[in-house]
């Protein structure tokens, strides 16, 4: 049975090398749209001035506001970051590669419900748009009277997708944390000549002493003991 000296040893190593460890950050989750504000702030992309004005009027009649209007989606992510709309509406003949890239960038960095009105029906293009983050893809162009209903569907689909994304991220984080804890236990068992329950108790005590999550402590222990192994 290992004595308290074994635990004291790893505790001392932890203190000596802790200063070289980088702080552990937390991955931000995508914005939740569980409670959408009213009225909605809309960013509209439409290269036809007259039609865009009709859509803006239709949205205003429903109590919503177009806070930014673009003729092309090339600066879409930048404009969303600047104006922080609740919904993005895009109306164009068909999304080209630059448009798909712009929507993919938006979906990664500033996800929002995106409604795309297309004049042409192309199943492959529609699938590409949906993969790029479009919440609702409507063929036959933009009709002002349909905007409200389609926008509501897009928001509902966006909320559902964001919820699934958060659950998936959480599951991945938990799995990665379990793997790190197992790795830290293995290193402690090797360096401290102890069994698995004792190694886990060491991790728990270190976590309690520092007010940290056990996964964060496991990361630090791994860094410390792996550096010790490299130095030998």
TrEMBL record:
Residues 41-155 form the Response regulatory domain. Residues 161-222 form the ANTAR domain. Signal peptide: none annotated. Keywords: Phosphoprotein. This is Response regulator receiver and ANTAR domain protein. The keyword Phosphoprotein applies. It holds the Pfam family ANTAR. It comes from the Bacteria. GO terms for molecular function: RNA binding. It comes from Halomonas caseinilytica. The lineage of its organism: Bacteria, Pseudomonadati, Pseudomonadota, Gammaproteobacteria, Oceanospirillales. InterPro entries: ANTAR, CheY-like_superfamily, Sig_transdc_resp-reg_antiterm, Sig_transdc_resp-reg_receiver, WH-like_DNA-bd_sf. The modification 4-aspartylphosphate is found at residue 91. Gene3D superfamilies: 3.40.50.2300, Winged helix-like DNA-binding domain superfamily/Winged helix DNA-binding domain (1.10.10.10). GO terms for biological process: phosphorelay signal transduction system.
